[in-house]
Design goal:
With 457 residues, the chain is α+β, with helices and mostly antiparallel strands. 51% of the residues lie in helices and 11% in strands.
């Protein structure tokens, strides 16, 4: 099993990898399918199902679909151009394509939210339909946004296309147990094995450049979030808090007045800065999703800024180790909140961050696996219940707490020798089973939990 670090960490836009980035990618793919089709199309219709319907407005899924049909991509998102495109399509009720001509598309009528049962393949389903001049169906395709910006057609999902089909990699571990056995057998760290796997597909130059770009985008997101104030969009009137907390922390530096636990505020503020940017619809890096995008950058920033003798050349080890753990969780369970609740998002991110931090602090492979297990274990059962369908409450603070748990998990694991009762594989399987058993109203539908117990929302 191989999932590239650049699949796990993708540059995109907020507020959601599965509800914004995924639908945008699906819409663009569908447009390309129409271009490759022999039919002459006159219009397009789109229907959102499951979690995409219930929380689509709050996650800007409708906007994402329109932009995808207008040929936009998450990684090259241009805010000004996108606003012009949405305005034009909304007013003219046409998608303009050089290859297909003008396709009738009225977002008010042709973009539908189906609040009935979800499609069978995944809670995040979309059906795109190409129409003739009488409004009859010429071509139809079903897509599933399976978390982290990954998108599959119904046929691809059935065929297991979310699994790696590339050439064999040197260290093909598909479980934590296999990973540890290989690490011991070949006397290589987890990051070294992950790096060799990456280098079997791309050049070392591209790997180095790509990892540098990932961290630059993550760090840039933190810095933007720490400088911004105001109210987040969506109607909840949630104020940005990261800047105020950061300014207060900076003012307290050197005064010897703050208690030791204030370090938790630093971890939280880095994570909150990222997730406030995400909620605003800014540029983000999936880590492994947008809803959990603050945890890993916050822990890496904590390491670089607050840990004595931290060195930047360990950023690669951190991100490669985190990606290896994230790949195992995605392969054996889920990183989708709509599929398994927030345990699959912030829980996965916390496990990945704990593993990365443990690695750069000198942990053995066994200690790294232990760190990931501790962090994930203590997110088991966490629901996904975004108030008003927005990634604001409880998501922003939850990333801060996920970062704190990750650091604590890494620290605890380093106090031991790596032996522990619950293997990471067992914890991942427990998360998968818990996600299956969790009723749908607690899986990113805003039909339960905080989403229905906050007045006036």
């Amino acid at each position: 099993m191989f999932l590239s670090v650049f699949d796990m960490f993708k540059v995109g836009i907020g507020p959601s990898s599965s509800h914004t980035m995924g639908p945008m990618v699906a819409a663009k793919r569908f447009l390309q399918s129409l271009k490759n089709s022999p039919f002459n199309y006159s219009g397009v219709r789109v229907t959102l199902y499951g979690s995409l319907a219930f929380t689509g407005k709050g996650h800007a899924t409708d906007r994402a679909v329109i932009l995808g049909l207008a040929n936009f991509s998450p990684d090259t998102y241009d805010p000004l151009a996108s606003e012009k495109a949405i305005q034009s399509i909304t007013e003219e009720k046409f998608i303009r394509s050089d290859d297909l001509g003008d396709l009738s598309f009225d977002p008010q009528k042709d973009l539908k939210f189906d609040y009935g049962p979800p499609l069978s393949g995944h809670p995040n389903g979309i059906i795109f339909t190409g129409l003739d001049d009488r409004g009859d169906t010429l071509f139809q395709e079903t897509y599933y946004s399976i978390g982290g910006g990954f998108v599959l057609t119904s046929d691809e999902l059935a065929a297991g296309k979310d699994k790696d089909e590339g050439p064999e990699v040197p260290f093909p571990f598909s479980s934590a147990e296999e990973m540890l056995v290989m690490s011991k057998k070949y006397n290589l760290s987890i990051s070294q094995m992950k790096k060799e796997n990456e280098l079997s597909r791309i050049s070392e130059t591209d790997l180095d450049r790509g990892i540098k770009n990932i961290w630059e985008k993550m760090d840039g997101c933190i810095e933007r979030g720490l400088c911004q104030s105001g109210v987040l969009p969506g109607g909840l009137n949630v104020k940005r808090r990261a800047k105020g907390i950061y300014d207060a922390l900076m003012a307290e530096r050197g005064l010897n007045l703050t208690p030791p636990h204030t370090i938790n505020d630093w971890m939280s503020v880095y994570a909150m800065a990222v997730n406030e940017e995400n909620a605003f619809g800014g540029q983000i890096v999936t880590a492994p999703t947008n809803g959990a995008a603050g945890v890993i950058p916050a822990v890496l920033k904590y390491y670089l800024t607050h840990v004595p003798n931290a060195v930047e050349n360990k950023i690669e080890d951190f991100l490669l180790t985190a990606a290896a753990i994230g790949g195992l969780i995605k392969f054996n369970a889920s990183i989708s909140g709509a599929e398994a609740g927030c345990q699959a998002e912030v829980g996965s991110a916390s496990a990945m961050a704990a593993a990365g931090l443990c690695a750069v602090l000198g942990g053995t492979s066994e200690q790294i696996e232990n760190a990931a297990e501790i962090a994930l274990e203590h997110h088991l059962g966490m629901t996904c219940d975004p108030v008003a369908g927005l990634v604001q409450v409880p998501c922003i603070e939850r990333n801060g707490l996920g970062a704190i748990k990750a650091v604590s998990a890494a620290s605890l694991s380093l106090r031991g020798d790596g032996t522990h009762l619950v293997p990471l594989d067992a914890c991942v399987e427990t998360m998968r089973q818990t996600g299956e058993d969790m009723i749908n109203k607690y899986k990113e539908t805003s039909l339960g939990g905080l989403a229905v117990n906050i007045p006036n929302c």
